Structure formats: structure tokens, C-alpha cells
Protein 1
Amino acid sequence: MARTASNMLPLGTKAPDFYLKDQKSASQWFSFADLKGEKGTLVVFICNHCPFVHHVIEEVVMIANDYRVQGLGIIAISSNDVVNYPQDSPELMTEFAFENNFEFPYLYDESQAIAKAYDATCTPDFFLFDNQDKLIYRGQLDDSRPGNGIPLSGNDLRGAIDGVLYNRSINPDQKPSIGCGIKWK
């Protein structure tokens, strides 16, 4: 299991726009503007097969369920090369979304241009934007990793989301996410 860290896109970066197909509906296309939340937006790069994603997906879904009703937009994107990694195919993305009860879109970045625009490098990779679409958090969910014995809490990401929702300061000293590297073409 390879460990790749986030690149840590500079804070204040404007959210790159996109127009991607939602694999949950298989017929709808969305832009960032279509999906952004009233108070902020969380963009998460994930994939179907990564053990780091499997380790955190239940907490990610809980975070989405806890915060979307409070005005946070949640967007999941997969950018992996499906030719060499067919377990990340759009059809299996649909299954993964339903198996994990996603109440948010799971978009497919076939060209990988969106992952590059966000400077995403791993799965999971978290990007939190404020209501002005400026990056205010990029980093880890928490200190838990597969096999390290630290229970999932989502503390780091939840603290940043609370900062967005309740207009609190967010610690600029942020730890990178660690996960499987995005599978580039």
C-alpha cells in the first residue's frame, strides 16, 4: 500500500471550476457552481479501491450527512485511470456510491484535468472552500490510517468545517492527507 501525501494547494486559491458527470445518476452533469454550498464546499478526491478511502469512507459519509443540512456542499470526484485500474470504472463508482449511501454526487474526471487543476495527488484528498469559493483547508481527515490503531474521528476536517459554518478562525498549520496516489494515465 503506497503512501502518497497531499500537495497542499496554497490557501486562498479559488476553487477550480469543472463540468463532470455524476455517476450516481449517470445522466446528470454538474459544475462547481451547481453543487457549491451556501456556506462552503468540500471537494474530496476518492476512488473505489483504495484502502485509505475504504478506511475513512464511513466517516466521510457521516460528515456529509452532518454538515450538508447546515449549508455545506459536498462533492466527491474520482480521477483514476480506469484503463489500468478497471475497479475504478464509472459503473463501479455507481455501485460504490450506493453501497456507501452517498447523499452527494460522485463525479468522474475522465481527462484527469480537474485533479490537476486542484493539484490533487492522493485518495482521499480533501479541499474545503468558504462561501467565496476560496480554499481555507486542505489536508487530512484526522490522524487515523489503516492499521495505525488510531480511531477515526474526522477531527481535523470537522474543525475546519465548523470554522466555515460558524465563522471561526481555521488553523493554517494543516497536515497533508495521506493515501494512495492518483492513478495517472
Note: Strands lie at 4-5, 19-22, 29-31, 40-45, 72-78, 106-108, 122-123, 125-130, 135-139, 178-181.
Protein 2
Amino acid sequence: MNIRQLTTFQRAATLLSFSRTAAELNYAQSSVTGQIRGLESSLGVELFERLSGKKVRLTQAGRRLLPYAERLLSLADEARGATTGPLEPSGQLVIGTMETLASYRIPPVLEYFHHRYPQLQLVLRPGSGAEILHALREGSVDLGLLMSAETQHSGVASEVLSPELLVAFVSPDHQLAARARVTTADLRGVPILAPESGRGYHRLLETELRSGPGAPLLLESGTVESTKRWAAAGLGIGLLPLVAVEADIEAGILASLAWQPPFEVYTQLVRRRTPLTREMQLFVDRVCSFMGQEHGAAAA
């Protein structure tokens, strides 16, 4: 049993695919198979059950081995760092994130890492909250940032970074823009612009609108930016986090509605329940610092 075998086992146990493990580690698939078989031979047990369609799943012995393998690999990294001394953080971190966060929350973090740690590449993978959680569980992203009303998610660890204030908005000359109070019933009579199917707070809005008489008219507007443009053109009502629309409201391009959503969403950092690499920990610390400062400034 050696470090190379344990590394291959850990990735295969996460991805549940020898072919994807080979692609990620830049091995031939036969090398992955050989390393797994060598590890099984040294332990005298089968670690994977081979299924049809090139799929695999962990045996009971494999599930027992996985936490030990992760601890041994973490200790190996620690020993390597203690022996060679501090090295510049490097490599690649893949971050799953939602469009609003990528556009309005993460840029200061990217700028910080670009100047402070130029050898560490941050790659953003956009998606809905459900897509980010799925990618995190299967190992195709390293960390995730999402907005959701739920703060606990099956199979992953989560940390709430800040609440996100949601704002309903329209064009300044819309019939609802000048009203001192807008009700949910008022919203049922006009088109609602949904930037993307599967976005959590729009599901909550749709549920709220369907709780009363009449059927809401939902228009798929594609992206955050197109939602703002459609609203400015008078095509309907948008609902987005304040950070995405406050500049447009201040400029008079959009007008906020006097309607308070009856639900809350929170920006969260999500990760697998495994030890963090040094690079992951750097990103987690910096995101918590930046977003904590932003929330504190907004609250003040």
C-alpha cells in the first residue's frame, strides 16, 4: 500500500468511475485499474464492486478504508510541507458558483488571488444551486458558493456567509413603480421575469404566487443581465439580489417595488466533508473575510 495507490483510490471512491479518475490524474485507465488491484491485493479485500456500463461502487471494505486513506493523504501533504518548507500556493481550484455571485461578489476575491498568489488558478463553473451541490458531491468542483433558503445540504458541509437582500424591480414608468405598497396579489397580474430555471429564490417566488387565485405568467429571461434589460424595457417584474441591481436603481434605469419577499436566502460556502488542502483553506478564509466585510458595511 503506497501513497500513489491511496491517491488513486480516494479519487476513484469520490468519482465512482475509473475512466474519470484516469482523466483527472492524467493516467491511462489501465494504470488506474492496476493500482486499485494492487491495493486490493495488498489488503486482501475487494474495494470496488464492478457494475455494468463501466460504473463502480464501493464495497463495505472500501467504505471503511476511505476515511483512513483521506487522513493518510492529508498527513503525507503535511509531512511534505514540513520537509520542503513553505511553497507558493499553486495549481488550480475549481469553484462552482451562481451567476450573481460570480458577477458581483467574487471579483474582489479573484483580484486578491491574482496579485497575491499568481501561481494559483481559480476557475469558476457557473450553475444553479442544485447543479453546484451535485458537482461538489461527485468531485468535479473543489468548493461551491450558492444562494439558497436552505442552509443545510445533504452530504456536504456548509457555512452561511451573509443573508442576501432580494429586491423586486420594474422600469421607472411601470404602473406599480409609484405605489407606496405592492402586494403579492398585485404581482399575480403582471409577467414575472425568471433569469434561469432552477434558481432557488425564483422557485420560492413561484410558490408564493401560486398560493393564491390565478396563475402567474413567468417569462424565462435567460440571465441576470437580460432580466434587468427586459425589466427596463417594461416587459415585466424582476427579482434579484440587491447587489445585482442597486447601481441600476441609483441610476434611474430600474425602480424598486415596495414589496417585501416573504422568504429569505443566504449566500453560503459549501464543501465536501474531507480535509481541506492549503489552497482550499486560503480561498475559504479569503471569501469569508471579503463577504463578512461586505455584509458588515451593508448593515452599517
Note: The first helix runs from residue 3 to 15.
Protein 3
Amino acid sequence: MNFSSLSNAPSATKGPVQSGLSKRDAIDPARRFFLAAGCFCLACSFVTPVLANAPMLKSQAPGFYRVAVGDFEITALSDGSNMLPATKLLQGDPARIEEALKRNYLGDLIETSHNCFLVNTGGKLVLIDAGAGSLLGPSTGHLLSNLRASGYQPEQIDELYLTHLHADHVGGLMAEGQRAFPNAIVRVDKRDTDYWLSEANMRAAPAEAKRFFEAAIASITPYMRAGKLAIFDGNTDLVPGVRAQTAYGHTPGHTMYVVESRGEKIVLWGDVVHVAALQFKDPSVTIQYDTDASEAEYVHELAFADAAENGYIVGGAHISFPGLGRVRRDAENAYTYVPLDYSQG
């Protein structure tokens, strides 16, 4: 607006008074505008910014994320996270491991996700892994709350497939002394039940390893007694569109689950990867928790190569939540993990 044009506008009558207005009312419109604005700003200066003292909430949104695979819906569910002492547990060239951690802005301790995956086939609700429950402290054990937040109840789970019987995958089978998934059939590879449910193996294990056996026995036994444990052996079709695929090495019966619908595919890896920043570039890096490190390394190579060649989605139990992405083979014949872009659905 050109305020000078207002002050120079011709008067309808001569003299200081027009249509009964006083001299005070006849003040220049531009001056009236700025006087009013100044008064408003002065008033604003006395308002206290009360929002500046709002407390920090220090919590995240509920941990679930959905993706469609053909006619199926996959929901990634967070069981939480905890700190992994990477330099202590990872097996490989220490200098290369340290350099890779620094390159990815990581230190000796890495916050590691614990992810489970719910497969809704339209006819069945299948949960892959049960999280840690109360076995690893308060930073994990959030599967049930996130399952409910995602719109499902534990009683609705028809089938529960375990990638293996480590504590962070079976602890959530029990809640407050009861089966957390009372209507679910729990399925697991025979090699893992033979190994981890054996009291003879537990007695022969080093003292620091006995807790793995104790966790497996305490978590699986109530389902066994209820007639809810079903053991399979190797590559097995389970429900239409979902099959077990052997990935032995991390544990004797470690298993991946392949989900396919209408030509689309996702492979739920379990513990093929623990530290994505290292192991995709160097599949030879293993972890102390591997029962057979050489076999685990072979599974890394096989899983990465197949995913890169065929371009399907993979889901990792310990890849940063939601743990969903694809694998790309780089020019130097190394692999890169490519997380899925966020989608509103």
C-alpha cells in the first residue's frame, strides 16, 4: 500500500473539520496505522511464553509399521532395543571393524533393535518371533503393547514361528507366568529344540551360556505341555504363502521365513544380520553368539546374494526398526542395505 498517496488525497471540503470530524480524528491514516501497530507490539511484549517450560516427554510413538506384500499385510513390531557391545562380540579383523564403526558414526556400543513381524494372510495371523519379554530388562519386552497398538490382540495370533530359541526371540512367549499367546501354535525347527531344550547340553555348556538354555526351556515348556508346540524339520510349507527356509549357523536350527503373495515376496531373516553397518559390506563378520561361525558366514553370503539378485524385501530382527529394506550389490561386489522409504500406507 502507498501511504503517501493517502496523505496527499484531495479533501472533499476545505478546512480541518470534515463531516463533523475533529482535528484529532482527521490525523493522517498512515500515522494512525503505525500508532496502532506500535501499541499492539507493546502489548505483546508483556505476554509470557508459557510453552517454553513444557517438560520433555522422552518417549517414542508406538512401534509398528505396515507394508503390503501382494494380498498379505506385514506389520513390523518393535520389542524395543538394547545396547550391543559390538567390538567385544563381533568376530573379524578388529581394525576393519573399528574403521567401519567410525565411518558409520558408531562406537563400541550400538543401540540394536529387536523386531518381530506379524503376517496377516487374510486367513491366518502369523507372528514371527516373540521378543525378549522380561528377560533383557526394561528397554525390551514391548511386543505385546505394540501389538495392541497396531490393532491386534495376543489372543488373535493363530501361529507363532520362531527363527531360533535365543532369549530375545522366545522370552515374550510368557507374560506374568502365563502363555502370552494362548491360542497360538508355536512352530520351530527340530535342530533348535533338540539342542536348546536338552538338559544334558545345558549341563555341558559353559557357565555364561547356561542362561540361553534356561530361557528356552522356561519359554517353550508351557506351550509343549498345552499341546501347542509343533516341530518341523528343515524346509517346510507351513500355511499357504508362508514357508520355513533353513539358515543354520547362528543356531543349529536357525530358520528364515519366506512369505509370498501374488508374485511379491518378503524374507524374514531372523538373526542373519546383527550390525548392518558392518556385515553387508563384509559378510565374513560374525558374532560370538553364532553356534557355527563358518556356517553363519556362508548364510550371510547366500542371503545377501539372493536378495540382491531378486530384489525382494527382507526383514531383519536386529536391523534398525522397522528392519525392512532391500539389498543392492555394489560395483566392488560388496552389498548395501537400502531401507524402505516411509509410506503413509
Note: The first helix runs from residue 3 to 7.
Protein 4
Amino acid sequence: MFTTCCPLILASASPRRRDFLTRLGLEFSIVPAAIDESCNPAESPWNFARRMAATKARAVAETNPDACVLGADTVVALDGRIFGKPQSQEEALAMLTTLQGRTHQVITGFAIVARARNIDEVDAVTTEVTFGTFAEPILQAYVASGEPMDKAGAYGIQGIGGFLVDSLSGSCSNVVGLPVHALVRALLDRALLRAEG
């Protein structure tokens, strides 16, 4: 459906982001960025997601100046606290327990860097997600499935973890890892993408 106007590079190893771009019919290569992903003291989740996305895209664009590089970073936040990927099953269970019955934010920062075209743009999209409440054995069973272990906030809305979500307000694809509507709009507006026809 779409074609890019210059080589497209995804500066991420995320299989979910790769799948979104593939479904759009885009040709792209994957060059994961090797960067420090530490949060700065007092940095807001919104600013952190934007900074990470921009840092990833700019790092890859340094050695690929003729390409359009897409960087993205998704964070889960509650009361200003960032919930990253759990380092253990115990941490995953603690995250899910904290998020139960509450509304949290999923923020995906995305950056588009095309050095040859003097494009360096960063934005972010926020989706409000409300969890239902479940007994601990159910949460433990979900953690035991292994799905939470490579996901911010310890859940995947596109997988088994969808049962945790009572409602959401905003972009669903954003919760999975890429705000597809905002990204396509940005690429079209900057003439980096065109519809095939």
C-alpha cells in the first residue's frame, strides 16, 4: 500500500515494530541501536520515551546519512514511575499487582531522522490503559507463561495479556509499541512515504 521515498531503517530489534512496518507493505532494514537506556534523575516518562527514540535514531543515522531512520521507545508509567521490562518473575508479578485496578499510561516516543533531507523530528503518543483486578494465582499463571518477561510493564496487550485490560483510551497500536497512525501521518507529511497506486 505504501512505498518509502528513501531507504528505511528501523533502529530497533522489536519484533512487534517490525511486524507493523511489514503489514504496511514497507521495505526496510533493521539496525538495532546500541545505546545507554538509563533514565536520568527526575526525567518524566514522556521525556524519557522521546529521548530514547531520538537517541536510537540519531545513533543509526550517523552511519546511514542517506536513509530515513526510525527510532522508537515504549514505556509504561503509573504516577510518574516508569515500569520497564521485568528482570525476574517476582518483579513481573509485583508490576502486575501494582497496575491492577488502575489506569496507567503507555507512552511511545518515535523519532524520524533523515540527515540527507535535514529531517530530525521527535514526537510521542500516550494511551491510557485501565487494568481489571484478578486474584494472585491468575497473575502468577500469566507470569509463568513467560510472555511478560520482554515487555515494558510486564504485559502484552496483543497476546495473552490482553485479558488484563478492562479498557483503553487512545491508540491500541501504541500500546503494542508503535503509534502507527501518528507515524504514517508524520512520514507522509515529510514526503518520506507515498501511497502506491
Note: Residues 45-62 form the longest helix (18 residues).
